[in-house]
Amino acid sequence: MASLSSSQAVLDFLARCFSEKLLYSCEGIANIFVLIRDKKGVTSEQRLKQVIEKPVFSRIKTARPDALNKLIPIGGDINLPNLGLTSTDEEKLLEKVSVVIHMAATIKFHEKLNISVNSNVKGTEYVLNLCHRMKRLKAFIHVSTAYCNTDQHLLEEKVYPPRVKLDEVLRYIEQPDQDEEVIKKRFLKSLPNTYTFTKGLAENYVLDHHGNIPTVIVRPSIVSPSLREPLEGWTDNWFGATGMIVATVKGANRVIFGHPQNVLDLIPVDYVVNAIIVAASQCLETLAVYNCCTSSCNPLTLEMLLNCVKETAITIGFHDNSFPTVIFTNKKWMLLILTFLLQIIPAYVADLILWVVGKTPKYVKLQSQAIAVRSLINFFTSNSWEMKVDNVKTLYASLSHADQREFPCDPSDINWNKYNNNFVLGIKKYLMN
């Protein structure tokens, strides 16, 4: 079997972990073709070599280093028609690929609508068009997000009807002048950003155009450091809850927008990877949707998360002086006032002291970064959803005991105390050195 991973962000956290797990646990796979664009004078081959040097591949280097030869870079761009493939690469994919994993997207929350549509919707169209011409294709896996229907409190494993028709959106983005307020009122409505909006449009495109291709949509919530694989607590980015946790532990963030009993739906990256692999192996002649989430079966509240993080941070000395008191508020005006009093003013005072003693001020800059990180996750800490995972649990239950041990993906099994301990340890080890 040969697989195509259409993540031009092979440098993306999920894509790297997915490639490593395929190589480590699926020895029968022939090749993994990875779509990567050239960037800043660095070729796709060079970028792949850089990625392989990351710690995420240390396990496979030890166990079966030759398996890394199965990773084959394919130069291309998700934003270009036919993915910008050369005729040689196109023919290779059409002849050899049997499973396509499409996880490429722009994940900038507030990207301009035309850019987000081109990458997340048109990019999906280009991948699916290629899939329809593949001679050996057995499954198409589209990685979406659990947050593309946040106007629903109960989120089931199904494709929801679009809020607006794609044709209407395409006509609008062809206009030279696009008003952000019009976009919010006409298209986004109650959705938080263009990312979640366009991922929902992409799901509907897949529903309408997958044809007779066995198709799966996998919807992870907030993808977070690994629970077990490839390394406990492995992470390589500040996205999701990671930045907020570090800012809070270090005392830079003292206010959280939300209620302490709100559920923050984290999902370990290795559980998402395993769900994708298992879903691909059992893909049927219909479209199936799998939510990779924890809120409905194993909820983690903000209060639980911070208590676990606090305990671990104090134990390993990963905090500055005393662990700061965190205040929760559901009021935006109160969030601004508390942030000004507890974060911004102290930062200016600290920088003034540094300046007086002849040192370089730094705390105002750090504070602006902490506020920016928090603002990205404000929508998710100030709301709660119940995301059903019945299909994922059924999928997991269908596996043999051996495969359940090899590909754990039932979120009910996650021990949050152990996970959050690994979360903090992973941040300290892999991000803070």
UniProtKB/TrEMBL annotation:
<keyword id="KW-0521">NADP</keyword>
<feature type="transmembrane region" description="Helical">
    <location>
        <begin position="333"/>
        <end position="357"/>
    </location>
</feature>
<dbReference type="InterPro" id="IPR026055">
    <property type="entry name" value="FAR"/>
</dbReference>
<dbReference type="InterPro" id="IPR013120">
    <property type="entry name" value="FAR_NAD-bd"/>
</dbReference>
<dbReference type="Pfam" id="PF03015">
    <property type="entry name" value="Sterile"/>
</dbReference>
<dbReference type="GO" id="GO:0080019">
    <property type="term" value="F:alcohol-forming very long-chain fatty acyl-CoA reductase activity"/>
</dbReference>
<keyword id="KW-1133">Transmembrane helix</keyword>
<feature type="domain" description="Fatty acyl-CoA reductase C-terminal">
    <location>
        <begin position="343"/>
        <end position="433"/>
    </location>
</feature>
<keyword id="KW-0472">Membrane</keyword>
<dbReference type="Pfam" id="PF07993">
    <property type="entry name" value="NAD_binding_4"/>
</dbReference>
<dbReference type="InterPro" id="IPR036291">
    <property type="entry name" value="NAD(P)-bd_dom_sf"/>
</dbReference>
<comment type="function">
    <text>Catalyzes the reduction of fatty acyl-CoA to fatty alcohols.</text>
</comment>
<feature type="domain" description="Thioester reductase (TE)">
    <location>
        <begin position="13"/>
        <end position="276"/>
    </location>
</feature>
<dbReference type="GO" id="GO:0035336">
    <property type="term" value="P:long-chain fatty-acyl-CoA metabolic process"/>
</dbReference>
<protein>
    <recommendedName>
        <fullName>Fatty acyl-CoA reductase</fullName>
        <ecNumber>1.2.1.84</ecNumber>
    </recommendedName>
</protein>
<keyword id="KW-0444">Lipid biosynthesis</keyword>
<dbReference type="GO" id="GO:0102965">
    <property type="term" value="F:alcohol-forming long-chain fatty acyl-CoA reductase activity"/>
</dbReference>
<dbReference type="GO" id="GO:0005777">
    <property type="term" value="C:peroxisome"/>
</dbReference>
<comment type="similarity">
    <text>Belongs to the fatty acyl-CoA reductase family.</text>
</comment>
<dbReference type="InterPro" id="IPR033640">
    <property type="entry name" value="FAR_C"/>
</dbReference>
<keyword id="KW-0443">Lipid metabolism</keyword>
<keyword id="KW-0812">Transmembrane</keyword>
<keyword id="KW-0560">Oxidoreductase</keyword>
